[in-house]
């Protein structure tokens, strides 16, 4: 079973690239982030025609997440995170797909920091950890997949100095991420590529793609039952180089049935 995560950076603008990727790689489950579209304008018909059932949590203009399942209909479990009732950002969606619990996550960026946006990021990560603990307690095979907007280690960025002041690399962001993995969630890409040097994001500016000046912020965290089934974890890097591509590449894990 292949489970993928893809920050599509605008599903309407990138729909040809999304459908192309789905057809060419055929993931069993695809978690999408940064849809930048409302629930009403989500391209459900096109995705269904590609062979995928879907649930989505949209928001006009920014944010937005979805879970796609090949030949199946995801069964929604949770929408949004508890803890801040006034938080209306569409950043979290959880579903059951073929016996697997899957969450798609678009974690706040947090820039500029320090400031209110960074404070919101840290509060959101605390709320995510609380929900992850609830999933853990159910003892189900689970994957928390998405754009975490955290560079966990120095080996996950092309230049430590260039990103030193960014919210993605602040000690507080890293500590909150490591608290999750410390709870027993396995970072699949880190497990398969312990030496690092594997990027999932390249900015549109300053020739970042051409220079391979990227970093790793898209992560797939596995519960122990899922981690026991881990075969490999990889990045579909070539899709970042296609015309009108997202600034993220898809990442995926393969699990034994």
Automatic annotation (TrEMBL):
SUPFAM superfamilies: DNase I-like (SSF56219). Signal peptide: none annotated. Its cofactor is Mg(2+); Mn(2+). The record marks 149 as: Transition state stabilizer. Residues 4-248 form the Endonuclease/exonuclease/phosphatase domain. Transmembrane segments: none annotated. The record marks 218 as: Important for catalytic activity. It is an enzyme of class 3 (hydrolase). Its EC number is 3.1.11.2. Mg(2+) binds at residues 7, 34, 147, 149, 247-248. GO terms for biological process: DNA repair. The keyword Hydrolase applies. InterPro entries: AP_endonuc_1, Endo/exonu/phosph_ase_sf, Endo/exonuclease/phosphatase, ExoIII-like. Keywords: Hydrolase, Magnesium, Manganese, Metal-binding. It holds the Pfam family Exo_endo_phos. The record marks 248 as: Interaction with DNA substrate. Probably binds two magnesium or manganese ions per subunit. The keyword Transmembrane helix does not apply. One of its GO terms (molecular function) is metal ion binding. Belongs to the DNA repair enzymes AP/ExoA family. This is Exodeoxyribonuclease-3. It comes from Sphingobium jiangsuense.
